[in-house]
Fold:
Amino acid sequence: MFVLRSSITQKQNMPVINRDKLIIYQIFTRLFGNQNTTNKVYGTIEENGSGKFNDITDTALESIKNFGITHVWYTGIIEHATLTDYSGYGIAVDHPLIVKGMAGSPYAVKDYYDVDPDLAVDVSKRMQEFEALLTRTRNQGLKSIIDFIPNHVSRQYHSDARAFGIKDFGEDDDKTVTFAPDNNFYYIPNQDFIVPEGHKPPIHVTGPYQERPAKATGNDVFQAQPSQYDWYETIKLNYGVDYLNGRATHFDPIPSTWLKMRDILRFWTEKGVDGFRCDMAEMVPVEFWGWVIPEIKKVNPDIIFIAEIYNPHEYHNYIKKGQFTYLYDKVGLYNSLRHLIEGGGSVEDITRIWQRESGDISENMLRFLENHDEQRIASRYFAGDAWAAVPAMTLSATLHTGPMMIYFGQELGVDPNVSEGFQGEDGRTTIFDYWGVTEFQQYVNGGKFDGGALTNDQKKLRAFYENLNKFVTDNEAVYAGNFYDLQYVNVDGQSPDYDKTRIYSYLRYTDKQKLLFIYNFDKERTYHTNVRIPQGAWQDTLKLNATVSYTLKQVFPLLILTPNIKPSEITSTGIALTLPPNSVYVYEILENK
Structure:
């Protein structure tokens, strides 16, 4: 049961108005511009094609900017292990027994100082092509984010692009011991690495993979043979934590891995990258982040760091001590909204999330419903219908002032329904293989990026996302306002037919603007209910007059004027509403002049 204090805790002093509401568009770079429609399972780059840096043209970026985006996350930029042979360009060939898929995982980094050759038209000029993309992005008024993968590297990691004098990872390691504070890797002495049982590469294997001594696997597997479900293609980096000795820490003097990672982050920052999405940041000690982020801010004070973290108990630690700008909010809001979209769960979880998990760091939580790790909304594994996420996406974007994210093609209802290769058919867009995303190819429309080949339904869905993006950045109450949960005053019979598990309502407000948000997450039921705003909130929090009349103007998703309503009605019986299934209504409270 909700109690009055759930509302009291959300009353704060008005914030300084700012427009730093980030809307991040995640691009899987290898797939984004690929117009090849062959789509052969386990197809080679010659058969299935690959998107290039140069495919992300000024026209593409202008389209993204006009869509309402502020930041572009270019996923899969740094060179990683692959089954494509680039030995003609001085890049070592990767052994097929330790590569996932034909293209390989972008999170099995092969050279921190280089970019993925798949993405270049002229492989010998791949870095120049990436730098040109950064310039185009900046010239369109957008900011660039790339992945930083700090926890693990590919098993055959070797940097051939690092500057003279920079030592490679593992170069000075003592390989006779499991752990040493200044080693870059963890070892299983006197044992050979054994490829997991069940792994079958898509190409012919001419010989065994040899690694002695075996190194610990990226997801903290400290044995010579990981399973096929482990991150067996990667090796764990050592930040001075002795995992097999009670996780004892050795941070003084500063470990070698810390210094090397600082130099890598500095390298990309100096190229003009505006932010880093840090893969599995919680698998790296928070002390490292608290040290390295201030170091990088000496180069660019405005750079942002986004942590992929799945333990809510560590949220405050990685924000306060680790000094991250933003955190993934998967375990909190994403999981709760997914359950609602699928017909389960309860909106009561939303109140618990902002109260217990986010609290004073709500502005630091990055909200999303899709990314490269998650199943697509339109797939049969999730909602089976891209429109089913409209209320949840609206809530993700407007619950607090923190950033929101859209995965490329989400706005078009991308539905992966065949196996592309390594991942199989699992409702996700492949990150391991060469592929063409049909729905996105329809939007690209031969490089016009005008949606000319989309269906009418796809055009309408994209229009919803574009309108949401602009609603978020155009309305002060959303991008800079306070939040007030209205559940406690409407549930448990206080408002008739107000289902406390399916209907959710809240206020977002500043001195200049007051917005009321109302959601029905039920997939089938229409509710005829009232939504009350308590008198104390009306007068003390919103600072609205108790004696004059007001108009509720529907500002999202449609523009409809409702009849005039007296404050006494709003605070007593409430606003009478009919809420269709899976719906959202946003009203601006306007005083009648």
